[in-house]
Specification:
Blueprint (H helix, E strand, L loop, with lengths): L10 H10 L4 E5 L2 H9 L23 E5 L7 H10 L5 E5 L1 H5 L20 E3 L6 H38 L3
Parallel strand pairs: 1-2, 2-3, 3-4
Helix pairs in contact: 1-5, 2-5
C-alpha cells in the first residue's frame, strides 16, 4: 500500500503515552500564586507545547489539581471534597510556600501545608513560585506518572507469571 502509514504498538504503551502527555489541570487558586499559574497558561510560557493546555474548572473533568495559594481551615473541607470528586488516576501539585507549608502565616486559621488533607505528588516552592518552577513541576509529574505506570506494568507481569506458575502445579 503506497502512501499509507501504519503505527503499531501495544495498547498499554499508547495509554501510558497519552496519560503522560495530556494532563487536564484544575486550578484551585486562592492568592498570588494563582496569578503565576495564569502566566504559565498564557502565550508567553505556553504550556500547550507539553499537552497541558486544557484547563478544566470541574473536578470531574480533570486529573491534576493545582493548589496555588493559602488554604485556611475553612477551605480545607472544600479542597478535600474537590479532590474526592476527581476521577482516578489523579495527582496534586502544591504550588507556592503557602500551599506547601503555610508560608509566613503561622496562625491557627491557616493550614500548614495541604498534605494534611490531600496527598501531594509534586511541591513547587517559592513565594510566589515562578512560571518556570510550575512548568518544571509539571514535567516532574510527567516523569512520576511514567515511573508509576512502569512499576504497575511490572507488577501485573509478575502476577501473571505467578498465576501461570500456580496453574501449572498439579493440586
Amino acid at each position: 500500500m503506497i502512501g499509507e502509514s501504519w503505527v503499531t504498538a501495544p495498547f498499554d504503551k499508547l495509554e501510558e503515552w497519552a496519560q503522560k502527555n495530556s494532563f487536564w489541570p484544575l486550578p484551585f487558586g486562592t492568592a498570588c500564586c494563582a496569578i503565576e499559574f495564569m502566566g504559565v497558561v498564557s502565550s508567553h510560557y505556553d504550556m500547550a507545547r507539553f499537552g497541558y493546555e486544557v484547563v478544566r474548572f470541574s473536578p470531574r473533568q480533570s486529573d491534576v489539581l493545582i493548589v496555588a495559594g493559602t488554604i485556611t481551615d475553612k477551605m480545607g473541607p472544600v479542597l478535600k471534597k474537590i479532590y474526592e470528586q476527581m476521577p482516578e488516576p489523579k495527582w496534586v501539585i502544591s504550588m507556592g510556600a503557602c500551599a506547601c507549608s503555610g508560608g509566613f502565616y503561622r496562625a491557627y486559621h491557616v493550614m500548614q501545608g495541604i498534605d494534611e488533607i490531600v496527598p501531594v505528588d509534586v511541591y513547587v516552592p517559592g513565594c510566589p513560585p515562578t512560571p518556570e518552577g510550575l512548568m518544571y513541576g509539571m514535567l516532574q509529574l510527567k516523569e512520576k506518572v511514567g515511573r508509576d505506570r512502569k512499576a504497575l506494568r511490572q507488577k501485573r507481569k509478575e502476577i501473571e507469571v505467578s498465576a501461570d506458575a500456580g496453574a501449572a502445579i498439579p493440586a
